[in-house]
Sequence to fold (847 residues):
Amino acid sequence: MDFNILIGGEAGQGLKTIDDILGKILFREGFNIFSSKDFMSRIRGGHNFMQLRISDEELYGPENDIDLLIALNSETVEIHRDQLKDDGIVLIDGESEIIDGRTILVPASVIANDINPKGVNTVFVGAVLKAMNLDLEIAKEVLKEHFEEDLLEDNIKLLERGYNSVESIYDNLEQNVTEKDDEIFIDGNSALGWGALSGGLRFYSAYPMSPSTGIMKFLAGQQKDYDLVVEQAEDELAALNMALGGSYSGIRSMSGTSGGGLALMNETIGLAGITETPVVVADVQRPGPATGLPTRTGQGDLLFAINSAQDDFPLMVIAPRDQEDLFYTGFRALNLADKYQIPVIILSDQFNADSSKNVKEFDFESLTIERNIISNDDQNADDYKRYKFTEDGISPRAYPGQFKGETVLVDSDEHDEKGHIVEDAETRTKMVDKRARKIDKLIDEDLQEPNYYGDENIDYLLLTWGSSYGPAREAVQLLKEDDIKVGLLSFNDVWPLPKNKLKELAEDAELVTVELNSTAQFKSLIASETLIDVENSILKYDGRPFTGKEIYQRFLDEVIDNG
Amino acid sequence: MANKKEITITDETAWCPGCGNFPLRKALSAALRDMDLDCDQVAMFTGIGQAAKMPHYINVNGFNGLHGRSFPPAIGTRVGNHKLKVIVESGDGCSYGEGGNHILHNIRRNPDVTHLVHNNQIYGLTKGQASPTSEEYIRTGIQIEGTTAKPFHPARFAVGMGASFVARSFVGDQDHLNKMVKAAMEHRGYALIDILQPCVSFNKINTYQWYSERVYKLDDNYDPSNIDSAFEKAREWGDKIPIGIIYKKEEEIFRDRLLLKDDEPLVEKDFDPKDAKPIMKDFK
Fold:
């Protein structure tokens, strides 16, 4: 069973409420679920839609073909008519009747006008549940959690009236579904924020920028329960510099933005590099350059992030593959930033950030915070040198006020072991080398090789970084059904680039990168780092995510047919 | 070692002989010693420029960051450890030009930070271009027929923005500067001292003599809590330039508005990842 619901309408019609409520209900019913969003950059009007795809098997991405189209306006039907499956059904607002066997009118406005004119969306939730032949027990629980008391009664009525206004259509959706007691249903931005919070994040300073703002919103909501400060900075320059000041004082600090903000932050990433101040920056990518497509998705910042700021200094770039990986990366990035005293950039994207998926409950037993701040009895505390030369390049880190009579001096100028400004050639060279040694250690001890999905003997190898993993994984399954021997190598650490598995698998397979940018940036990175020539790239840069079927079809057209 | 905690100054600097930074540093270090502060209790945040090299020449904690960005890291440190005495210090170009936006918004935040601006009305380290506070129409190697913009007036701006402490001082009057620094450090909230100082290498107009002939101290009858007289004094610039505390008001500071649980600095708090596990219920 693979069932796809699309909810479409204007901004301001309450689409998100339907999506939130329905998503939670379907998750609690036991379905595997993948929910993705397509917004326009506006508050009212336009056309927005959300997709809820459910299945009795795990889902990794969205689907284009629609089983059930919930149209809050007639424009939605026009835009999405072609995506309807042959047996697809449209639910649209109107006097209750079945028009042509495919379109069912739900008297949503009529019912809402009776009870609460703002409640059209809840009527639709009821109608959808009836169409899917699900009962209202879980739905009522979810409404209770979602609505304040004064609105709850109305919404229960709206739900029931909607439910009773249509007939059941689908009988067997729940057949192979089991409750998911050990799972959660979570979006990418919340997962990343939660991962960082679990890592002892104390300070998040950012300037609101789509599609990263969800991280800030999640964390802001945690301030009452945790020792956490979320500050809205006056601009991205302040945002990251504030985070560095937090880190300098000894607390874990982070910022988040999208590509344009990362451009503004670039000099400060260099500052984190030369001052060796740990910091984590989430770049939730959207298509650019400049303002680009503010609410859409893309993977165009790979080489930009890796090449942040002028000259050489160690930094790490991680591109989490899905909602689960975003959580663990949020945690791990703070540990790595502290261990190596470097900036760590997390490359997420709108697709990853705004999509929700059911995942296994996060394993808190597996999480250990490692600060790498020297203890009070450390011999380095006496005549403290922030940039002491060491074998592995990592200097003892203390924070201001930690030791009586000792000071901590950090400097954006080249500096000596104490942190004092210098210009002599010898110290400069030694400091550059010291900083560079940290990355050697990181590669030895902490770099994660990509995950491999597929059989042992393959003719083709798909290469993804970040969120293209999900759709590509579905494509691999579809290609296998066609007896095409294909595997998938899904990178999350992208800088430094892990090379071992790639080199091993590249020997016997034709390589294909799958990327949401126009110049195959990952292919370029692989070429420059390994001299491996990737033969093909399946690229897309229209601001929309891949689907599994799309990659499958393009693989057949562009790789097999051209092969 | 006799006293490692004592705040001292270095012998060597990269400043020109006769630079206004020397008397400023002398007054500052004396003020910190007068306040019985140890070197580890003070954190200084600077940007780029000759003034911004201060943490290399006085032994307090120092964050010598980017040009224009002296202020934002200080906010992060205020979040992490409010027990430190925080000074933001830089020149007029770094503070009022490149970093203009941060002054504006940190006056709004009102953090407990002392802001010392070395205002010599010229760019020194880049060799003599106009700064935001340069006199109107002055000519330089870049502004060959005179500046293209009117000067920025820090005191007017800060009083207008409702900064909680606005003062002006002059490096030619050590006692005065010393007192101003102490008053600013003792003020709970944002405290700006616009410090007039000559640039002996590049500013041939605003010399020691030029300032000495114009500055006068606000007398004991002046009431810095009166916003109307503060506006009047903040606007005074030209033949007579008032120095002293122009405006002062106790109000809520940045930290008061944060959702913190207690007075323990965040840097000293332990955290266990499992503390974040209860969030699980929000996603069930």
